[in-house]
Amino acid sequence: MYTQGLDQKGQPSAGDGLESQADLDAFQKRVDAEEKIEAKDWMPEAYRRTLIRQISQHAHSEIIGMQPEGNWLTRAPTLKRKAILLAKIQDEAGHGLYLYSAGETLGVSRDQMVADLLSGKAKYSSIFNYPTLTWADIGAIGWLVDGAAIMNQIPLCRCSYGPYARAMVRVCKEESFHQRQGYDIMVELCKGTDEQKAMAQDALDRWWWPSLMMFGPSDNESKHSAQSMAWKIKRFSNDELRQKFIDVTVPQAEFLGLSVPDDDLEFDEKSGHYVHGEIDWQEFIEVIKGNGLCNKQRLAKRRKAHDDGAWVREAAHAYAEKQAAKQAA
Amino acid sequence: MNDKEWPLYEVFIRSKSGLSHRHAGSIHAADDEMALDAARDTYTRRSEGVSIWVVRSSQIVASDPAESSAFFEPAEDKIYRHPTFYKIPEGVENL
Questions:
Q1: How close A281 comes to chain B (CA, Å)?
Q2: 51-70 in B: which are within 8 Å (CB) of A?
Q3: Which residue in the set B14, B78, B88 is minimally distant from A180, CB to CB?
Q4: Is residue B33 domain-resident?
Q5: Are strands A273-275 and A266-268 parallel, antiparallel or unpaired?
Q6: What CATH number does residue B24 fall under?
Q7: Which of A24, A29, B15, B35 would bridge with B9, disulfide CB 3.0–4.6 Å?
Q8: Domain count of the fold of chain B
Q9: How far is B16 from chain A (nearest CA, A)?
Q10: DSSP secondary structure string, A119-181?
């Protein structure tokens, strides 16, 4: 069961089945009035569970997301690029930590969230199960993957749950650097030799569709969407955000002189939006189910890192206990 | 008569839901319950808050001001952490 991080005076604990219709209505009224819900406020169990699921998945994505980029850390082309990539990956770890702490305000312990990731019970974004084959992939990730993440995260800054919204404000402030450094890599490659430009095109070819899948299933398939919209956890539907992303990203690709790998892509003058081709949802489902190119490798590496770090955690405990004993003596 | 000084508490106030608690000041009180009441009476007489945290000042671990330049120095030379470090080519939008 959940632990409760903050002492909660005179309130029924979570999950005791005391949800009256009056409470639920009052809660919805607060949400409709754009009031923020805070950790100690009453909330429906389903709202709490939805947020725990979403925030922990979001946190896990940041943590696992360090791996594809970490793959190129020791092979970055210059010291400058290496320092930038290192700083970016460190930010991703930081984003994971902001999010885990937002999750903890809902009464789930950090150890529990981490255990759920390591056991494979909890999910993380499908995008991090694709391999980074060349240096251009680091550019494509910053530009496309972080670009898609920004699109998704900006509305989350206005999410009804205060601690999540505030964590997102922090994250969004830092994302802009991530996207720009990625685009900067792409610009450099596209100004380079034919081979370098081909490398950039190849990266776009491989990352375009998986980036579109980051927004999740299409609106008629998305099972959590309607309730999340009513609770103002979500502000825009998956398809709306995906469309926004395509609309701003295609001109950026054109500027680079690269072609978006979608034969059906065309600009519709009437609506002012790009019309795109069919997304391969079977691929998305397979990756989510654990059958992507790197799912097994990502989890194995995360587990190994956790196990390899056990002695550090033990040593820190031992040191703290020794110091406490010394002070007591 | 026991004239021992009451412990010091730091007071944090959330001015409205959606915002973080911010440090407002401190009060002395004999226990946690009285600290909350005293904080309310001292810092929110004009409805300045919707939530109050009090914490014993002795429980706060603070960085040492004398060490602050060395403590924060590692972040100073990493200008590439800021988006303004990157030149966006003319004509590229929404980055």
A1: 28
A2: 51
A3: B88
A4: yes
A5: antiparallel
A6: 3.10.20.520
A7: B35
A8: 1
A9: 9
A10: HT-S---GGGGS---STHHHHHIIIIIHHHHHHHHHHHTT-SBHHHHHHHHHHHHHHHHHHHH
pTM: 0.91
For A264, the token pair is 């059906």
Domain assignment of residue B94, yes or no? no
**For the segment A201-252, what is each residue's pLDDT rounded down to a tens digit?**
999 999 999 999 999 999 888 777 889 999 999 999 999 999 999 999 999 9
Distance of CA B94 to the CA centre of its chain: 34
Distance CA B28, CA B6 (A): 6
B23 occurs within a structural domain: yes
For chain A, what is the largest distance between any 2 Cα atoms, rounded to a whole number of angstroms? 79
How far apart CA A247 and CA A52 sit, in angstroms, is: 31
Inspect the interface and report whether the beta carbons of B86 and A184 lie closer than 8 Å: yes
Annotate A4-34 with DSSP letters as a single string: -SS--TT-PPTTSS---HHHHHHHHHHHHTT
Residue B88 lies in a domain: no
For the purposes of burial, counting CB atoms within 10 Å of the CB of B58, is it exposed (0-12), middle (13-18) or buried (19 or more)? exposed
Q: Per the CB < 8 Å rule, is B18 touching A41?
A: no
- Kindly report the length of chain B: 95
Which regions of chain A does DSSP assign to beta strands (E)? 266-268, 273-275
Tokens of A124: 């993380």
Please list, in sequence order, all residues whose beta carbon lies within 8 angstroms of the beta carbon of residue A218, skipping any fewer than 6 positions away.
A238, A239, A279, A281
CB spacing of A179 vs B95 below 8 angstroms? yes
What is the ipTM for the molecules in this complex? 0.87
Domain extent at residue B9? 1-60
Q: What is the pLDDT of residues A132-141, one digit of tens each?
A: 999 999 999 9
